[in-house]
Amino acid sequence: METPHSKRLPIGDPGYRSELQKALNYSIVDLIDEFTAAGWDKWETLKALTKVVCDHALAHQEDRDQSRTSPKRKPPGSDKLPPAQVTSSRSQGHGIR
């Protein structure tokens, strides 16, 4: 079943981004209307939405960059030293006194 969100063009097609923006527009307008109806200021909603979208884009870009530079992704926390080997920077003479 095709919806207003349905992908119609392959990535790389000259019209791909334009079609995606049109598809997103409907949902974004509905989202903004929903938040303003709930009492949020429209301008503040637009600024917050912009911030959230930018944060997601940056996080996605970091993930893409990381996956290109390292063939295998390490599990979260695997780069930390075991508790017995952790020392503070102050005990190593690098702390602020």
Short overview:
By secondary structure, the chain is an all-alpha fold. Helices cover 52% and strands 0% of the residues.
Per DSSP, what share of the residues sits in E-state strands of 2 or more residues? under 5%
Number of helices: 2
Query: Mind describing the biggest β-sheet?
Result: none
**What is the typical, i.e. mean, pLDDT?**
77
**So what's the overall shape?**
flat
The Cα radius of gyration reads 22 Å
Given as residue ranges, the uncertain stretches (5+ residues, pLDDT < 50) are 85-97
Distance between the termini: 66 Å
Describe the overall structure.
Residues 85-97 have a biased composition (Polar residues). Residues 59-97 are annotated as: Disordered. With 97 residues, the protein is mostly helical. The protein has a domain at 16-71. It is 52% helix and 0% strand. The chain is built from two helices and no strands. The protein has helices at residues 16-37, 42-69. The longest helix is centred in the middle third of the chain and has 28 residues, at 42-69.
Q: How does the SSE layout of this entry go?
A:
Elements: H1 16-37, H2 42-69
Keywords:
97 residues; mainly alpha; 2 helices; disordered C terminus
